[in-house]
Amino acid sequence: MIGISSFAYHDLSLGEALQNIEHVVNCAEIFSEGKHDLFRQDEIAFSYDLKYTVHAPSTDLNLASIREPIRNAALQLVEDMTDICNEIDAEVMVVHPGYFPFAYDRDFAFNAFQKSLPVLERIGEDAGVRICVENMPKWECFLFREPDFEIGANDFVLDIGHANTMGNLEAFLEREISHFHIHDNHGDNDEHLPPGEGNIDFSAIKGLLRQNNSIKIIENKSAEDALQSLSALKNMGIK
């Protein structure tokens, strides 16, 4: 199943975004930020005939915070978000692994995230929601940019564009993938372009995308790009 991230319609209200998505696909990933913050307006999702996945907030949520009260607060936000997932029948929730402000803090952040992993597993099991940890792009402050990074028993969402900025997409394809974020770039910046507009060889991975039954979320910055991405995927036989 192909879905579209509400981020492509971030300038619209959540209702308007979902209405636009409903016209072209059967699935939407609600990026719970800004005008689409589910903590403020989860009831809007009931108005549309869509299957949902949820992208947890990325601002003010750091599962690798070296400040223990902040890390615990982030875990509580994740747990609260799984309650919303259950309300709107979203079986998948995407989370970022966390970040650190200074290179000196990387090991501390890594250890903090490792402490968060079993809690994430427990939260997901208790709620019946698959918590999928996303690989990050080529920004030094992020964890989980390499394919050997440990995420415990949590599921993995492969962000194809992020992996391309790190030059390790092929290695990431060896991991068990439970969810996809699809967009393109030229290998340096996280541009979120439609497939074919950057340098990712989608012809080399279209077989995997066809065979894997996980939800594939188009993650672009504009509605026009999202529609172009949808056309490109359909032309590759990806449904």
What does this structure look like?
This protein has 239 residues and is an alpha/beta fold. 37% of the residues lie in helices and 15% in strands. It has an eight-stranded parallel barrel with strand order 1-2-3-4-5-6-7-8, surrounded by five helices. Strand 7 (179-182), helix 7 and strand 8 (216-218) form a beta-alpha-beta unit. Helix 3 (68-87) packs parallel to helix 4 (106-127). The longest helix has 22 residues, at 106-127.
Brief overview, please?
The chain has helices at residues 14-22, 38-41, 68-87, 106-127, 160-166, 169-172, 202-211, 223-235, and strands spanning 2-5, 27-31, 51-55, 92-95, 130-134, 155-159, 179-182, 216-218. The chain is of the alpha/beta class.
Uncertain segments are none
Q: Tally the beta strands.
A: 8
Largest sheet: 8 strands, parallel, barrel
Major beta sheet, strand line-up: 1-2-3-4-5-6-7-8
SSE arrangement, N to C: EHEHEHEHEEHHEHEH
Mean pLDDT: 97
The number of helical elements comes to 8
- Structural class of the secondary structure composition? alpha/beta
Which outline best applies?
A: globular
Q: How large a portion of the residues is in β-strands, by DSSP E?
A: 5-15%
| Helix proportion range | 25-40%
Rg of Cα set: 17 Å
Layout of strands and helices, then pairs:
Blueprint: E1 2-5, H1 14-22, E2 27-31, H2 38-41, E3 51-55, H3 68-87, E4 92-95, H4 106-127, E5 130-134, E6 155-159, H5 160-166, H6 169-172, E7 179-182, H7 202-211, E8 216-218, H8 223-235
Parallel strand pairs: 1-2, 1-8, 2-3, 3-4, 4-5, 5-6, 6-7, 7-8
Helix pairs in contact: 3-4
